Amino acid sequence: MFHLLYNSDMSKGTYLLHPELIESIPIGSNLLGRNLGLRVEETLVDNLDADPNISLVIRALNEAEKLEQLFADIHRQLFQSEVEVIVVDNDSTDRTPQVAKYYGAEVVNLPRGSFTYPKSMNLGFIAASHDVVLTTVGHANLSNIYSFHAGARHFNDGDVGGAYAGVLHNEGASTIERYASIAVGLELMKPAHRIKRARIGVLAATSAMISKAAWEELGRFDERYETGGEDTALAAKMLANCYDVLREPAMTVHHSHGLGVIDSIKQLRGWQQTLKAPRKLDKDKLFARRPDLLANFDKDTFKA
Q1: Does domain 12-295 match CATH 1.20.1740.10?
Q2: CA gap 86, 129 in Å, rounded
Q3: Which of 38, 73, 199, 297 has the fewest other C-beta atoms within 10 Å?
Protein backbone atom coordinates (compact mmCIF):
# COMPACT_ATOMS: atom_id res chain seq x y z
CA MET A 1 0.00 0.00 0.00
CA PHE A 2 1.11 3.54 -0.59
CA HIS A 3 -0.07 7.13 -0.48
CA LEU A 4 -0.10 9.53 -3.41
CA LEU A 5 0.92 12.74 -1.68
CA TYR A 6 1.49 15.24 -4.44
CA ASN A 7 1.04 18.99 -4.20
CA SER A 8 -2.16 20.11 -5.91
CA ASP A 9 -0.76 23.42 -7.16
CA MET A 10 -1.03 22.64 -10.87
CA SER A 11 -2.46 25.50 -12.87
CA LYS A 12 -5.91 25.40 -14.44
CA GLY A 13 -5.98 23.48 -17.72
CA THR A 14 -3.09 21.11 -16.91
CA TYR A 15 -5.22 18.28 -15.56
CA LEU A 16 -4.92 15.93 -18.54
CA LEU A 17 -2.32 13.17 -18.54
CA HIS A 18 -2.43 12.35 -22.27
CA PRO A 19 -3.39 15.45 -24.26
CA GLU A 20 -1.62 14.01 -27.30
CA LEU A 21 -4.21 11.22 -27.49
CA ILE A 22 -7.07 13.70 -27.34
CA GLU A 23 -5.42 15.78 -30.05
CA SER A 24 -5.44 12.72 -32.34
CA ILE A 25 -9.26 12.50 -32.31
CA PRO A 26 -10.33 13.24 -35.90
CA ILE A 27 -13.11 15.74 -35.11
CA GLY A 28 -13.73 18.05 -32.17
CA SER A 29 -10.57 17.28 -30.20
CA ASN A 30 -10.29 20.77 -28.75
CA LEU A 31 -13.89 20.73 -27.53
CA LEU A 32 -13.48 17.24 -26.09
CA GLY A 33 -10.34 18.19 -24.21
CA ARG A 34 -11.98 21.34 -22.86
CA ASN A 35 -15.06 19.43 -21.70
CA LEU A 36 -12.96 16.78 -19.99
CA GLY A 37 -11.10 19.55 -18.18
CA LEU A 38 -14.40 21.07 -17.07
CA ARG A 39 -15.64 17.73 -15.76
CA VAL A 40 -12.43 17.35 -13.78
CA GLU A 41 -12.78 20.84 -12.31
CA GLU A 42 -16.30 19.99 -11.16
CA THR A 43 -14.92 17.19 -8.98
CA LEU A 44 -12.83 19.69 -7.02
CA VAL A 45 -15.87 21.04 -5.18
CA ASP A 46 -15.40 17.96 -2.98
CA ASN A 47 -12.55 17.98 -0.51
CA LEU A 48 -9.73 15.57 -1.38
CA ASP A 49 -9.13 15.00 2.33
CA ALA A 50 -12.56 13.39 2.63
CA ASP A 51 -11.91 10.70 0.00
CA PRO A 52 -12.08 7.11 1.27
CA ASN A 53 -9.16 4.72 0.89
CA ILE A 54 -9.37 2.65 -2.28
CA SER A 55 -8.15 -0.67 -3.66
CA LEU A 56 -7.17 -0.63 -7.34
CA VAL A 57 -7.62 -3.96 -9.14
CA ILE A 58 -5.77 -4.27 -12.45
CA ARG A 59 -6.38 -7.26 -14.73
CA ALA A 60 -3.27 -8.07 -16.82
CA LEU A 61 -1.76 -10.58 -19.22
CA ASN A 62 1.67 -10.09 -20.84
CA GLU A 63 1.53 -6.29 -20.49
CA ALA A 64 4.77 -5.39 -18.74
CA GLU A 65 5.55 -2.30 -20.84
CA LYS A 66 1.98 -0.98 -20.84
CA LEU A 67 1.64 -1.71 -17.14
CA GLU A 68 4.64 0.52 -16.46
CA GLN A 69 2.88 3.32 -18.34
CA LEU A 70 -0.24 2.79 -16.26
CA PHE A 71 1.78 2.94 -13.03
CA ALA A 72 3.25 6.25 -14.23
CA ASP A 73 -0.32 7.57 -14.45
CA ILE A 74 -1.14 6.14 -11.04
CA HIS A 75 1.79 7.91 -9.42
CA ARG A 76 0.72 11.24 -10.92
CA GLN A 77 -2.68 11.10 -9.24
CA LEU A 78 -3.52 13.89 -6.83
CA PHE A 79 -5.13 11.72 -4.19
CA GLN A 80 -4.66 12.12 -0.46
CA SER A 81 -6.01 8.80 0.82
CA GLU A 82 -4.47 5.34 0.76
CA VAL A 83 -4.25 3.35 -2.47
CA GLU A 84 -3.78 -0.42 -2.45
CA VAL A 85 -2.90 -1.93 -5.85
CA ILE A 86 -3.71 -5.53 -6.78
CA VAL A 87 -2.71 -7.01 -10.15
CA VAL A 88 -4.64 -10.11 -11.19
CA ASP A 89 -2.14 -11.78 -13.50
CA ASN A 90 -3.28 -14.45 -15.95
CA ASP A 91 -0.06 -16.50 -16.04
CA SER A 92 1.95 -13.88 -17.93
CA THR A 93 5.12 -15.14 -19.62
CA ASP A 94 6.74 -11.71 -19.74
CA ARG A 95 7.79 -9.40 -16.85
CA THR A 96 4.25 -8.37 -15.87
CA PRO A 97 4.39 -9.88 -12.33
CA GLN A 98 7.86 -8.42 -11.72
CA VAL A 99 6.75 -4.96 -12.89
CA ALA A 100 3.70 -5.10 -10.62
CA LYS A 101 5.78 -6.06 -7.58
CA TYR A 102 8.41 -3.42 -8.37
CA TYR A 103 5.72 -0.75 -8.12
CA GLY A 104 4.43 -2.14 -4.81
CA ALA A 105 1.41 -4.05 -6.05
CA GLU A 106 0.15 -7.34 -4.69
CA VAL A 107 0.03 -9.99 -7.44
CA VAL A 108 -2.80 -12.51 -7.51
CA ASN A 109 -2.22 -15.29 -10.03
CA LEU A 110 -5.04 -16.77 -12.10
CA PRO A 111 -3.93 -19.84 -14.11
CA ARG A 112 -4.36 -19.45 -17.87
CA GLY A 113 -6.66 -22.46 -18.20
CA SER A 114 -8.95 -21.19 -15.43
CA PHE A 115 -9.56 -17.71 -16.82
CA THR A 116 -12.97 -16.14 -17.19
CA TYR A 117 -13.73 -12.43 -16.91
CA PRO A 118 -15.89 -12.59 -13.76
CA LYS A 119 -13.52 -15.02 -12.06
CA SER A 120 -10.61 -12.62 -12.51
CA MET A 121 -12.69 -9.75 -11.14
CA ASN A 122 -13.88 -11.71 -8.11
CA LEU A 123 -10.31 -12.72 -7.25
CA GLY A 124 -9.26 -9.08 -7.27
CA PHE A 125 -12.17 -8.04 -5.05
CA ILE A 126 -11.52 -10.87 -2.60
CA ALA A 127 -7.92 -9.64 -2.23
CA ALA A 128 -8.99 -6.00 -1.78
CA SER A 129 -8.64 -4.59 1.74
CA HIS A 130 -10.73 -1.45 1.23
CA ASP A 131 -14.46 -1.06 0.74
CA VAL A 132 -14.09 1.05 -2.41
CA VAL A 133 -12.58 -0.84 -5.34
CA LEU A 134 -11.46 0.73 -8.61
CA THR A 135 -11.00 -1.58 -11.60
CA THR A 136 -9.04 -1.22 -14.82
CA VAL A 137 -6.85 -3.28 -17.16
CA GLY A 138 -3.10 -3.34 -17.72
CA HIS A 139 -3.23 -1.79 -21.19
CA ALA A 140 -5.36 1.22 -20.17
CA ASN A 141 -4.20 4.70 -19.21
CA LEU A 142 -5.81 7.23 -16.90
CA SER A 143 -6.99 10.44 -18.52
CA ASN A 144 -6.28 12.98 -15.78
CA ILE A 145 -4.59 13.63 -12.44
CA TYR A 146 -7.86 13.50 -10.45
CA SER A 147 -9.23 10.20 -11.78
CA PHE A 148 -9.12 8.51 -8.36
CA HIS A 149 -10.69 11.46 -6.57
CA ALA A 150 -13.42 11.78 -9.20
CA GLY A 151 -14.82 8.38 -8.34
CA ALA A 152 -13.94 8.08 -4.67
CA ARG A 153 -15.71 11.30 -3.71
CA HIS A 154 -19.10 9.70 -4.39
CA PHE A 155 -18.64 6.86 -1.91
CA ASN A 156 -19.15 8.98 1.17
CA ASP A 157 -22.82 8.43 0.29
CA GLY A 158 -23.83 4.95 1.46
CA ASP A 159 -26.45 4.66 -1.30
CA VAL A 160 -23.82 4.59 -4.06
CA GLY A 161 -23.01 1.12 -5.35
CA GLY A 162 -20.84 2.08 -8.28
CA ALA A 163 -19.45 4.78 -10.55
CA TYR A 164 -18.02 4.43 -14.03
CA ALA A 165 -16.92 6.31 -17.12
CA GLY A 166 -16.60 5.94 -20.86
CA VAL A 167 -13.46 5.03 -22.78
CA LEU A 168 -11.39 7.16 -25.15
CA HIS A 169 -8.90 5.55 -27.54
CA ASN A 170 -5.35 4.72 -26.48
CA GLU A 171 -2.03 4.26 -28.27
CA GLY A 172 -2.29 1.79 -31.13
CA ALA A 173 -5.95 2.57 -31.75
CA SER A 174 -7.47 1.88 -35.13
CA THR A 175 -9.15 4.63 -37.14
CA ILE A 176 -12.61 3.40 -36.13
CA GLU A 177 -11.61 3.47 -32.46
CA ARG A 178 -10.39 7.05 -32.78
CA TYR A 179 -13.70 8.04 -34.39
CA ALA A 180 -15.57 6.22 -31.62
CA SER A 181 -13.95 8.64 -29.17
CA ILE A 182 -16.10 11.38 -30.68
CA ALA A 183 -19.24 9.66 -29.35
CA VAL A 184 -17.63 9.34 -25.91
CA GLY A 185 -16.85 13.04 -26.13
CA LEU A 186 -20.57 13.82 -26.28
CA GLU A 187 -20.94 12.27 -22.81
CA LEU A 188 -18.23 14.62 -21.55
CA MET A 189 -20.65 17.48 -22.13
CA LYS A 190 -22.70 16.24 -19.15
CA PRO A 191 -21.70 16.51 -15.48
CA ALA A 192 -21.69 13.41 -13.28
CA HIS A 193 -25.17 11.95 -13.02
CA ARG A 194 -27.12 8.94 -11.79
CA ILE A 195 -28.24 6.45 -14.42
CA LYS A 196 -31.63 4.73 -14.60
CA ARG A 197 -30.80 1.65 -16.68
CA ALA A 198 -27.82 -0.67 -17.03
CA ARG A 199 -26.62 -0.71 -20.63
CA ILE A 200 -23.48 -1.89 -22.41
CA GLY A 201 -20.42 -0.38 -20.76
CA VAL A 202 -21.98 0.33 -17.35
CA LEU A 203 -19.43 -0.58 -14.64
CA ALA A 204 -17.11 -1.96 -17.35
CA ALA A 205 -13.84 -3.22 -15.86
CA THR A 206 -11.77 -0.65 -17.78
CA SER A 207 -12.97 2.15 -15.50
CA ALA A 208 -15.35 1.37 -12.65
CA MET A 209 -15.38 2.08 -8.93
CA ILE A 210 -17.53 -0.28 -6.87
CA SER A 211 -18.58 -0.67 -3.26
CA LYS A 212 -17.16 -3.98 -2.04
CA ALA A 213 -20.01 -4.22 0.46
CA ALA A 214 -22.58 -3.95 -2.36
CA TRP A 215 -20.61 -6.47 -4.46
CA GLU A 216 -20.71 -8.94 -1.57
CA GLU A 217 -24.35 -8.32 -0.69
CA LEU A 218 -25.50 -8.84 -4.29
CA GLY A 219 -23.67 -12.11 -4.80
CA ARG A 220 -20.37 -10.88 -6.28
CA PHE A 221 -19.76 -10.97 -10.05
CA ASP A 222 -21.90 -13.70 -11.58
CA GLU A 223 -19.42 -16.31 -12.83
CA ARG A 224 -21.93 -17.71 -15.29
CA TYR A 225 -21.06 -14.72 -17.51
CA GLU A 226 -17.82 -16.34 -18.63
CA THR A 227 -17.47 -14.25 -21.80
CA GLY A 228 -18.15 -10.93 -20.07
CA GLY A 229 -21.22 -8.93 -19.13
CA GLU A 230 -20.85 -9.67 -15.41
CA ASP A 231 -20.15 -5.99 -14.77
CA THR A 232 -23.38 -4.74 -16.35
CA ALA A 233 -25.31 -7.58 -14.67
CA LEU A 234 -24.02 -6.36 -11.30
CA ALA A 235 -25.04 -2.79 -12.16
CA ALA A 236 -28.56 -3.99 -12.96
CA LYS A 237 -28.72 -5.72 -9.56
CA MET A 238 -27.57 -2.54 -7.87
CA LEU A 239 -30.31 -0.47 -9.49
CA ALA A 240 -32.92 -3.11 -8.66
CA ASN A 241 -31.82 -3.02 -5.01
CA CYS A 242 -31.97 0.77 -4.64
CA TYR A 243 -28.23 1.44 -4.99
CA ASP A 244 -27.21 4.46 -7.05
CA VAL A 245 -24.94 3.96 -10.06
CA LEU A 246 -23.30 7.10 -11.42
CA ARG A 247 -21.65 7.99 -14.68
CA GLU A 248 -18.64 10.08 -13.67
CA PRO A 249 -16.99 11.51 -16.82
CA ALA A 250 -13.85 12.58 -14.96
CA MET A 251 -13.03 8.87 -14.51
CA THR A 252 -12.66 8.45 -18.29
CA VAL A 253 -9.73 6.26 -19.33
CA HIS A 254 -7.81 5.60 -22.55
CA HIS A 255 -8.21 2.04 -23.81
CA SER A 256 -8.04 0.34 -27.22
CA HIS A 257 -7.77 -3.09 -28.78
CA GLY A 258 -6.68 -1.89 -32.23
CA LEU A 259 -9.74 -3.48 -33.87
CA GLY A 260 -10.86 -2.54 -37.37
CA VAL A 261 -14.44 -1.93 -38.49
CA ILE A 262 -15.47 -5.56 -38.98
CA ASP A 263 -13.92 -6.78 -35.74
CA SER A 264 -15.42 -3.82 -33.85
CA ILE A 265 -18.88 -4.81 -35.12
CA LYS A 266 -18.27 -8.41 -34.06
CA GLN A 267 -17.26 -7.21 -30.61
CA LEU A 268 -20.37 -5.04 -30.28
CA ARG A 269 -22.59 -7.96 -31.27
CA GLY A 270 -20.76 -10.14 -28.76
CA TRP A 271 -21.45 -7.60 -26.01
CA GLN A 272 -25.12 -7.46 -26.96
CA GLN A 273 -25.39 -11.24 -26.77
CA THR A 274 -23.74 -11.47 -23.37
CA LEU A 275 -26.17 -8.94 -21.90
CA LYS A 276 -29.17 -11.08 -22.84
CA ALA A 277 -28.18 -13.99 -20.62
CA PRO A 278 -25.12 -15.65 -19.05
CA ARG A 279 -23.05 -17.44 -21.67
CA LYS A 280 -20.37 -20.10 -21.48
CA LEU A 281 -16.98 -19.20 -22.86
CA ASP A 282 -16.49 -20.43 -26.44
CA LYS A 283 -12.85 -19.79 -27.29
CA ASP A 284 -13.38 -20.05 -31.05
CA LYS A 285 -16.12 -17.41 -31.02
CA LEU A 286 -14.06 -15.24 -28.68
CA PHE A 287 -11.01 -15.32 -30.95
CA ALA A 288 -13.23 -14.70 -33.99
CA ARG A 289 -14.39 -11.38 -32.59
CA ARG A 290 -11.19 -10.51 -30.72
CA PRO A 291 -8.25 -11.47 -32.98
CA ASP A 292 -5.99 -9.18 -30.94
CA LEU A 293 -6.06 -11.77 -28.16
CA LEU A 294 -4.20 -14.31 -30.28
CA ALA A 295 -0.91 -12.59 -29.50
CA ASN A 296 -1.32 -13.46 -25.82
CA PHE A 297 -3.35 -16.65 -25.72
CA ASP A 298 -2.54 -20.17 -26.81
CA LYS A 299 -5.80 -21.43 -28.31
CA ASP A 300 -5.01 -24.98 -27.27
CA THR A 301 -4.65 -24.16 -23.56
CA PHE A 302 -7.18 -21.34 -23.25
CA LYS A 303 -10.32 -22.88 -21.79
CA ALA A 304 -12.93 -22.18 -19.16
Answers
A1: no
A2: 10
A3: 199
Confirm if 76 and 17 have CB atoms less than 8 A apart. yes
In the DSSP assignment, the letter for residue 198 is -
* Bridge partners (DSSP) listed for residue 17: none
Q: ∠ CA(223), CA(228), CA(234), 5° rounding?
A: 65
Distance in angstroms (rounded) separating the CA atoms of residues 64 and 139: 9
CA atoms within a 13 Å half-sphere pointing along the CA-CB vector of 225: 23
**DSSP secondary structure string for all residues of 53-102:** PEEEEEEESS-HHHHHHHHHHHTT--EEEEEEEEEEE---SSSHHHHHHH
| Residue ranges of domains in the chain | 12-295
| pLDDT tens per residue across span 225-248 | 887 889 999 999 999 999 999 999
Handedness of CA 160, 162, 166, 170 (dihedral sign): positive
Distance between CA atoms of residues 127 and 108, nearest Å: 8
Measured CA to CA, the distance from residue 18 to residue 69 in angstroms comes to 11
Averaged pLDDT for residues 132-152:
98
Rg (CA), the chain: 18
- Rounded to an integer, what distance in angstroms lies between the CA atom of residue 285 and that of residue 50? 46
